[in-house]
C-alpha cells in the first residue's frame, strides 16, 4: 500500500496532536493525486498489468504444451500409417516431411509458434482438417456444458452455503452438510450413468444423448453454443430442445461443484459473520438483509470466486466421462481421441485451449478481486 | 434522555458473565466504566444494543426513557440501534468495512433511519466529517478506510455513530487501539461532542488514566458486578473498595495527581 494518500491538509483545523500527516512539504503532489477522477486510474493500470502478464503466460503455455507433447513416448508415424506404408521408408519419410517432423525440434517450435500467430494450429492427422476448425466445433459445446454447470453451481452453492451459515448447527445446516458431502464424494461418471438410466431410460423425462433433436437441425452457428445460437436466431424450438438436452449432463457435472461451493461459502460467511464490521453494521440498526448482502456477502465473495474460478477450469477440462456418456461432442472427447491416436497437432491444440481458458478464468477472477476489494486495486 | 440499566445479568453457556449490573447514564455526562479484562465491561455495552453473542441469556432491565430495550420487538430494537443508541468499537481497523467507502458507511443508516435522500445524506455526512475534524471532508467522503490513519478511522467511526443524532453513545475502549499521541485528541472529541450534543456517553475502558481525563462518573467492575460507582473525584481520590484501590495503585503516580 505504498501510494496510500494521506488526508489533504485542511488549514490547521483540529488538534495537531491527533494527526498523523506527512510533512507539509508533500502537500502539492498529494492534492493533485486526490482529484475526483483519480479513482479510474488504478483499476485501469491494474487491468493492463494483469493482461500483459497473461500474454506472457500464454507464451509459456505454448512452450510447455509443445515440449510435453514431443516428449511423449510413442511414434506418431506408427500411429497414423498403416502396416504396409510403414514398411516403405519413402512413404514414412514423405509423411514426416509433410508434417514437419524431419526438422530439428527448435525449428519445429518456431514454425509452430509462427503458425499460432497466424491462427494456424496445424492439421489434425486424424480428421485431416485444420485443428482450429475442429476446436471451433468442439470447444463451444464444452463451454456451453461447463458454463451451464458453473452457473447452476454458483446460484445453488452460494445460496446453500449462506443458508447453512446463517442456520448454523440447526437441522438445515446438517442436511446441507450431508448433501454437499454426497455431491463431493459421488463419482461423476457413476452419477452420469445413473442419471441417464433413471431420467432418460426409465422415466423418459429427458431427451437422450446429443445436443438437440436431430429432426430440428442446428441453429446457424454464431457462438457454437446451441442455446445461445438458437436464441440469436429466434428459434424457440431449437432453444428448448437444446436446454432439455443440456439439463441432465450439466446438473451431473454441477453436483460436485455445488457441494464444493456450499462448503466454501458456509465457512467464508461464518468467518465474515464474526468480523467487527458486521457487528458494527448491526449496531447501526441496518436491516438484516442489508447486513447480509452489503456487509457479509461482499467480503465472502473473495474466497468464493477463487474457488468458483478453479472449479470452472476443472469443469472444462474434466468433462470427458460425462461427454462420453451423454454423447456430447465436446473437447473432452476430442482430446481423448487425439491422445490415443497420437495426433500431436490436435493434442497441442487442446492443451493450448485449456491453458488459455485457465488464463482467462484467472484474469477474470483477478479483475473481480479488484472490483470487489479496493485494497487490491491500490496495491 | 437517560439510560438506566438495572439488575442486568448475562450468561453464556451456563457461565455467568454479568451478575446484576446497575448503571445510570445521564444526558450530557460521560460515565466511565472501568475494570480489568473479562470483568464484563464490554458485555454490558453490547447488551444495551442487543448484540450479545449467539446463545447468550439475558435478564434484568435496560430502560431508555419509557421503553425496556430487552423486551423490545426486533424491528423496534433495530430503530433504536444507530438511531437512538449508537456504538463506537475498540479497533477502527476492523470495525469499518474495508470494501465500502466512508461515504457509504456514513450515509446508509441515515438514509434508512431518517429517510434522507442521497444528496441530503451526503451533505450531512460531509458536515459530520468536518465536525469530527477530518481534513478535507469532501474528498474523504469517497475514500476507503485503509486510506486513513488509525486516529482518523476512529474519528470516522465516531461520525458514523453520531450520524442519526443518537441520545446515547456506547464507546467500547475507543482509544485502546490507538497511538498514545492520538488518544488524547479522540477523547477530547468525545468529551466535546457529549457537551455540545447533550449525549449520554458510556465510556468503557480499562485505562484509569483515560477515565480521569474525561469521565464525570466512574463505575468500577469486577467479575460481572459493579463494585464501586460515583463521581470521578470521589472514586479516583477516595476509593472505597479494595479493588479500586489496587487498580489505582497499579498506575504510575503522576497520572492522577
From TrEMBL, chain B:
One of its GO terms (cellular component) is plasma membrane. Pfam families: ABC_tran. GO terms for molecular function: ATP binding; ATP hydrolysis activity. It is a peripheral membrane protein. It comes from the Bacteria. Residues 3-248 form the ABC transporter domain. Its main location: membrane. It is found in: Cell membrane. Keywords: ATP-binding, Cell membrane, Membrane, Nucleotide-binding, Transport. Belongs to the ABC transporter superfamily. This is ABC transporter ATP-binding protein. It comes from Nonomuraea aridisoli.
